[in-house]
Design brief:
Two copies of one chain form a homodimer. Chain A is α/β, with parallel strands linked by helices and about 350 residues long. Chain A has three domains: about 45 residues, lambda repressor-like DNA-binding domains (434 Repressor (Amino-terminal Domain)), CATH 1.10.260.40; about 130 residues, Response regulator (Rossmann fold); about 130 residues, Response regulator (Rossmann fold, 3-Layer(aba) Sandwich). Helix content of chain A is about 40%, strand content about 15%. The first copy, chain A, contains 13 helices and twelve strands. In chain A, strands 2-1-3-4-5-11 form a six-stranded parallel beta sheet, with helices on both faces. A six-stranded mixed beta sheet of chain A has the order 7-6-8-9-10-12, with helices on both faces. The radius of gyration of chain A is 25 Å and the shape is elongated. The interface between A and B is large, with 62 and 62 residues. Strand 2 of chain A pairs antiparallel with strand 2 of chain B, so a sheet runs across the interface. Chain A binds a DNA duplex (16 and 16 nucleotides) through helix 2 and helix 4.
Chain lengths: ~350, ~350
DNA sequence: CTGAAAGCGCTTACAG
DNA sequence: CTGAAAGCGCTTACAG
């Protein structure tokens, strides 16, 4: 009971002593890979329950067993999109016996070495800025990897999971939604980044915007894409500048709800009414949408479905890797949520 | 290069071979706890850099070294409050060499055994529903624990960190803010829970609401507290029912911004104008506030400051536990953010 | 059917 | 100053 000393963690030996069997026997009942006399098995099981024993994860992992730890690498941990996703993944993972670690996409060279200390049973990459060669390195090293297709991963080879979360089709539908309202002069609002480096054409949402615009015969050159800002204020300023330069958008598509709402504010700032003068559409269907004014029309992402797919792939990759002979793929869909901003 | 085979993780032996020294020497230069001839040290260092070697975390932890893993237990992973907090903690933790795992507060009896497999160097508890006796068990077992004081933890003994994030004082200031606007008939909106079990008096925000009301001579009996709902719709219905029963609030305080905004919607639903008829105040200063209509006045929480305090305490607890002779405490402050809903 | 033993990748007290 | 060796808590091939 002395907090300073620390209660000794209970080990396999304690169970063996308590149950009156060899340590070997304890291992075999835990791993269930050898017949053990029913009566001994029972005594061991009781000892385990009584003492609340859990095999030391470290020791098991050292002997080649799983660490039961997954890592999720994200770039916008703060956002509601990842919040929901993590929450769903955590729920499913916990039931499968896993813990999930969360990590922003750190830029230092050492990052990959650190995550590759044989610690994680699998890695989920949901960051658009994680370098491709590092992803390839992980896959080549045999680490189970599941990629959330925020950007194009066509160049990645090997056995891994790839989840297309419907961003591209969703973006196209956003454009069509604006178009159906008679909007012809669209503006895409890119993300805010620390370094002011925006998305490139490998970004599914931007790509969807451009290609659907082309399909519909709408312009989508660089005047129609606002990018390169590092803060909310810079976004507002960039928008105002674009308008001052004579560009008059009648439809605004935000890369996510937060950005779309900032676009809405920017519109009002230069005197446009939403949705009378300009339609605004977001992406994510986050809580923000319902409470904005007017409520934001948006493209909903089903994080629960994504989480289920992630876990399904992870389990395949971890437990049945040798049975796979090509990458696993899944295509999910977004869903338009009509409110009043379009 | 064969993805199926997997590149063998590089071990201490590889470094020893590469540098032409004993494995022992490699360990000593890594841990820096013995003099090693400058020239050997240099060769080892070069080999480490060249091969990108990282000591196996599992093996080190098995020998009593740190696992460099922290666990954060939260109850509302989805929310923006935790999103920001995690994001900040992750940033600081990464620089200190830690990864942080995230976990909802699972209810099964086995949860504590699972987290107590000697895996985590420390545990941060930000969940109001984590059972007190389990917290005490962890602390008694010598696990470094930092508690975010969402509720009252006066009964926990031993050496641990306790961070009062200013919820109580913040809640009181919310009440005063409403009061200053002449609001006398206040309504506290509690959280939405899965089981419909609301907060008790150990909850700092509720406690602050009740006690400041008393100080100001305002009523704060159960008619002034709305609780026990399991969904947004139930909240709206409960609000309408309370009003139908003849209770006419002129000030609404939400437990967080999301709840406050729901309260705002509820007000409108029964025909009240905000802020003309009723003032609404939230808690968190999340993105929601800025985009609501009218923009929500709220109590800001500084997650960055909380994260810094958490890490500072964690490091003390992990690296200098023996030097502590009582629990570590910190008091942080919330900050009123005036907008237009009060 | 079952136990003693090797070994996973490390750290560090021990003995030169 | 430095190496061989014990041992952390496990798993499982090996030899009864």
């Amino acid at each position: 009971m002395n907090a300073r000393k620390g209660l000794r963690p209970i080990t396999r030996k304690d169970i063996a002593d308590e149950a009156g069997v060899t340590e070997t026997i304890v291992s075999y009942v835990i791993n269930g890979n050898r017949y053990v006399k029913e009566e001994k098995r029972k005594r061991v099981q009781e000892a385990i329950d009584k003492l609340g024993y859990r095999p030391n994860t470290m020791a098991r992992a050292l002997k080649g067993k799983k660490s039961n730890h997954l890592l999720l690498i994200a770039d916008d941990i703060k956002g509601e999109y990842f919040g929901k996703l993590i929450s769903e993944i955590d729920g499913l993972a916990y039931n499968e016996g896993y813990f999930v670690s969360l990590c922003a996409d750190h830029k230092d060279e050492d990052f990959v070495n650190r995550i590759y200390s044989k610690f994680f049973d699998g890695i989920i990459i949901g960051s658009a800025s994680f370098p491709l060669y590092n992803i390839q390195r992980l896959i080549d090293a045999g680490v189970p990897v599941v990629l959330l297709e925020i950007r194009d991963y066509y160049s990645i080879n090997g056995i891994y999971g790839l989840i297309n979360t419907g961003l591209y089709d969703g973006a196209r539908e956003c454009v069509r939604t604006l178009y159906r309202k008679g909007r012809k002069n669209l503006l895409f609002l890119d993300r805010i980044t620390v370094d002011g480096k925006g998305s490139d054409m490998d970004d599914w949402r931007l790509k969807g915007f451009i290609e659907e615009s082309a399909t519909l015969g709408l312009e989508s050159d660089e005047r129609h894409i606002l990018t390169g800002y590092r803060s909310e204020d810079e976004l507002l300023a960039a928008f105002a500048a674009r308008v001052a330069n004579g560009f008059v958008p009648d439809g605004v598509m935000g890369r996510n709800d937060h950005i779309a709402l900032l676009g809405m504010a920017a519109c009002r700032q230069v005197g446009y009414r939403v949705p009378e003068d300009v339609s605004v559409i977001g992406f994510d269907n986050s809580r923000l949408c319902k409470f904005s004014h007017p409520p934001l029309t948006t493209m909903g992402i089903d994080q629960r479905e994504i989480a289920k797919t992630v876990m399904r792939m992870m389990v395949s990759l971890i437990d049945h890797k040798s049975e796979q002979d090509s990458r696993l793929e899944a295509y999910l869909h977004t869903q338009l949520v009509m409110r009043e901003s379009v």
